[in-house]
UniProtKB/TrEMBL annotation:
Keyword Oxidoreductase: yes
Chain residue ranges for the region called Disordered: 1-23
GO-annotated molecular function: oxidoreductase activity
EC number(s) on file: 1.-.-.-
Keywords: Oxidoreductase
InterPro entries documented for this protein: Haem_Oase-like_multi-hlx
Protein source organism: Nonomuraea salmonea
Protein name: Iron-containing redox enzyme family protein
Length: 346
């Protein structure tokens, strides 16, 4: 099945295929990285300089995203041995250190009195509705092209929904592990392909005339969109950040139901049918349950089991919500002035 995609500007076969092509470089860092990835690992050092890059720097965030993607589906034509190549891992570590420094600098941390205070702080963070609301805009004011742009942004994560948080399963034990497995089982459709949340999102993309191929829009989204996914991968791929990963997931689940109700409302206002809106309808129901499991059975229990992780649990939640606020500000600023929130094609 093929279709013309106005946002992407081209027609292509629709497929959820396992590996996308590398996108075009977004600057000198990705230009150097992608040149190396085009060949075989050869042991040479790779020096990636991201000095001065901020959280929204597209060149920096795309480079880090590409390094992480080698642990997911990889890229077509990229030698799979790059995944554990020592030179690339050393270069990735430089990017990660810079990213962690930026998060520590830019993400406000609420006071935490101790491990028993984790659930209260998570609840307070989730209830803080300061900042711009993309969900309200989509429900009431967005045009069809703006909603399509929103879906393009979300495709970077939703087409692999649940995967980054699944890294935590072998790193937890007892009750917290069981709680995470319960949430993830729902995310993966209880073993039924057609009910997997990533597959439901592909149906939303198809219903809006978008390319539902994995990674199709990687070259179109801004750096702050990539930063949202990179935070999940950073926390997921490092055992030392398992607390942050748990808190990150809790923040997503605890702030999901109302926005998804608004997304569904906006989509139906714009003529979306039941199949196209099913992804959002599913999250209204599922995440109302998941938020309790994530806050109490996962995070509060993890803090009780491993008190030293309490601060990182809260930090992970704060990162999820602050990156979302920064992303919302970026997108709405452009929409309010009648501009696109995506990178333009050359």
């Amino acid at each position: 099945m093929t279709a013309v995609d106005a946002i992407g500007g081209h027609a292509r076969e629709r497929t959820g295929g396992p590996a996308p092509a590398l996108p075009a470089p977004r600057g000198p860092v990705t230009a150097l990285l992608f040149r190396r990835l085009a060949g075989a690992p050869d042991g040479r050092a790779l020096h990636l300089d991201v000095t001065g890059a901020d959280l929204g720097d597209a060149d920096f965030q795309l480079a880090l995203f590409a390094c992480y993607e080698l642990h997911y589906r990889g890229f077509a034509g990229v030698d799979e041995r790059w995944e554990w190549d020592p030179a690339l891992l050393a270069a990735r570590a430089v990017l990660e250190r810079h990213f962690e420094e930026l998060l520590a600098r830019d993400v406000p941390m609420p006071p935490l009195e101790g491990p028993r205070d984790v659930r209260r702080v998570l609840t307070a963070l989730a209830a803080d509705d300061r900042g711009p609301s993309v969900a309200a805009f989509l429900a009431q004011r967005a045009g069809r092209e703006q909603f399509r742009e929103f879906v393009v942004h979300r495709s970077i994560y939703h087409l692999k929904e649940a995967d980054p948080h699944t890294w935590a399963i072998p790193r937890l034990a007892g009750g917290p592990k069981a709680a995470l497995v319960e949430i993830q089982a729902d995310e993966y459709g209880g073993g039924r392909t057609e009910r997997m949340h990533s597959e439901l999102f592909r149906a939303t993309m198809r219903g809006l005339g978008l390319d539902d191929s994995y990674g199709a829009y990687l070259g179109r989204v801004p750096g702050i969109t990539l930063a949202i996914s990179n935070a999940m991968s950073l926390f997921g791929l490092h055992r030392r950040r398992r607390g942050a990963l748990a808190g990150h997931l809790a923040a997503l689940e605890m702030t999901s139901s109302l926005p998804n109700r608004r997304y569904a409302q906006g989509l139906r206002r714009l003529g979306g049918d039941a199949d196209t809106a099913r992804f959002y309808d599913e999250h209204v129901q599922a995440d109302a349950v998941h938020e309790q499991i994530a806050a109490h059975d996962l995070c509060a229990a993890l803090a009780a089991d491993e008190p030293a992780l309490a601060g990182d649990i809260v930090f992970g939640a704060a990162c999820a919500l602050e990156l979302e606020r920064l992303w919302a500000g970026y997108v709405l600023t452009r929409w309010e002035r009648g501009d696109t929130s995506l990178s333009r094609l050359p």
